Amino acid sequence: MADNPGPLKGVTVLDLTEFIFGPYATQTLGDLGADVIKIENPGGDHQRHGSKYARSEDMSASFMSLNRNKRSVVLDLKSPDGAARLRALIPTAQVFIHNVRADAMARLGFGYDDVARINPSIVYVHCVGYGSDGPYAGRQAFDDLVQAASGAADLLPRVDGNPEMRLLPSFLADKVSSQHAIWATLAALFHRERSGEGQFVEVPMFESFTSFLLAEHLYGETFEPSVSHMGHTPALAADRRPLKCKDGYIAIQPVSRAASARFLELGGMPGAYESPRFASAPRERRVAVHYEMLREAALAHGVADWMRLGDEHRIPIMRANTLDGVLDDPHLKAVEFFELREHPSEGRWRSMKPPVKFSKTPASVRTDPESPGASTDAVLDRVGKATE
Q1: How many Å apart are CA 26 and CA 14, to the nearest integer?
Q2: Domain assignment present for 238
Q3: pLDDT 10s digits, 9-60
Q4: pTM of the full predicted structure?
Q5: CB 125 within 8 A of CB 192
Q6: Which residues span the domain enclosing 114?
């Protein structure tokens, strides 16, 4: 297995997160070289279970995708022995991260004040649903709930005319909020490196995802008083979708009228914008006619030809893959993005390569997702089983 040091080599993370918001963040920290010790209760991370598409009951596909580069330690924190073992680990760590409700963690004796008394320089990261200063504080939060509250469920109705609110078909709020947890942890570690100070860091899912979503969709409400409506008009255009070609689909985003005209010409429609079809169309119909012509032109060639022509004529064109097709994308194959690895209990499995490149401290996949408690003895031996 690869043993690249990574930029976070020497950083130990005590990870008490489960599901997606949290584990996605700590996996990335592990990819970057941190020693991530995943503390699980005797039942294991809930994400381990509940999928019929797995080889083992406690190693679901989602768990496999979110928990590489971590060592699993099973501790019953409700028992005096389990709690004492975790307290013995705290002085060895630089980061303590969890997504348990604050009151529940305090009852277990691992609130920020409890942990900071043991290790004052700890970076304590709490992944929460809603910021502690607002009326939603303490409420349960899951991806569906946060997508709904953030306005994400209002996007598809603005595009396709179906007025029913719908969630985006990905656990985007979980994953985006995890990205916020990553940069928050790194920033706090940077401060710790310079000052020696630890601190409490709160990463609220609702606020994190809303700031991500509204970066463009705040739109006219960016100004006070408002100059227009909410919802970024170009992003919500109904015709903003891949174009069918001879043998599949392509996406095109011409950067200028000239590039669009060139695409139409390559598709057998020279001088399209000077043609009676476009020039004589009522002004309010011209955008629709423009997209009609693009759809017709796209049918002139197949995906490979359009990719070649786009490169030759400097027109932004890209193949539109199905989910299954992503596995065979020639670029991802060339960069070896998908790695088939041999898991000690699950057999061959597909891991995705850390996408960011470091010239000096490369990220890497060093260890496969572990079965529950696989590293309990090894990790506790490291601290001399101080509580025994």
Answers
A1: 9
A2: no
A3: 999 999 999 999 999 999 999 999 999 999 999 999 999 997 778 999 999 9
A4: 0.94
A5: no
A6: 12-213+336-382
